[in-house]
Write a structure and sequence with these properties.
mainly beta; Lipocalin; elongated
Length: about 220
């Protein structure tokens, strides 16, 4: 191989090796767990980043989870009076997602001749949660009580929520103010008229909620 070519290749290799050592601009996520970044107002649910993850016990062998996504709604809050916060969200049950196409289809299977569906039935109505009380627990945590309407039944539900982060999105992502929370709770599905498979499949359904809001 040409001597000059070898020297050039060697120089290029040396340069490539030093490139990782050249200082790069510091990067960090635009959101943080800094409550001072939250501003008062009414926020809209970020449907693409808000979900309800539900989990049941499957035959005593393992937990099984599914997701309700595409959640819409609003959150009204004032950092100076967080106990007065109000959240109202709508959850499209018809968009339920599981790891099994067969199970997903079964959950949306039309009612039988007796007029009863095993789970939600075809074209189920959206679920809805409307908060009625917010109790502050300290350390960026709160207990949220509200009315959950699911499968045509409305029952009170309590969620333990935690502040996750806030900040302004980059301009290339819309530049909106964002605030996010996580929450957990549990319901008994039989109380909402969904008794299929109990007790082989647990009556209790654990809920984990990841919610993002923007304004």
């Amino acid at each position: 191989m040409n001597k000059h070519l070898l020297i050039a290749l060697g120089g290029a290799a040396a340069l490539a090796a030093t490139l990782p050592l050249i200082a790069q601009p510091a990067m960090k996520a635009p959101g943080s767990r800094d409550g001072t970044l939250v501003t008062a107002g009414t926020y809209t649910a970020d449907a693409g980043h808000t979900m309800v993850v539900w989990t049941v016990d499957h035959l005593g062998f393992s937990p099984y989870s599914g997701i309700f996504g595409s959640v819409t709604g609003t959150l009204t809050l004032d950092p100076a009076n967080p106990a007065a916060a109000k959240v109202e969200v709508t959850i499209p049950v018809s968009k339920v997602t599981t790891a099994s196409a067969g199970l997903t289809a079964h959950m949306l299977k039309p009612a039988g001749a007796d007029g009863k569906a095993d789970f939600f039935g075809a074209a189920p109505a959206d679920a809805r949660f409307v908060s009625t009380k917010v109790e502050l627990l300290g350390n960026d945590k709160a207990r949220i009580t509200g009315d959950l309407t699911l499968n045509g039944v409305t029952k009170p539900v309590t969620l333990d929520a935690a502040f996750y982060g806030a900040g302004k999105a980059p301009a290339m992502m819309g530049g909106k103010e964002n605030v996010g929370f996580s929450a957990k709770g549990a319901i008994k599905r039989s109380e909402f008229g969904i008794g299929y498979g109990i007790p082989m499949i647990s009556d209790e359904v654990s809920l984990k909620i990841y919610a993002g809001f923007q304004k």
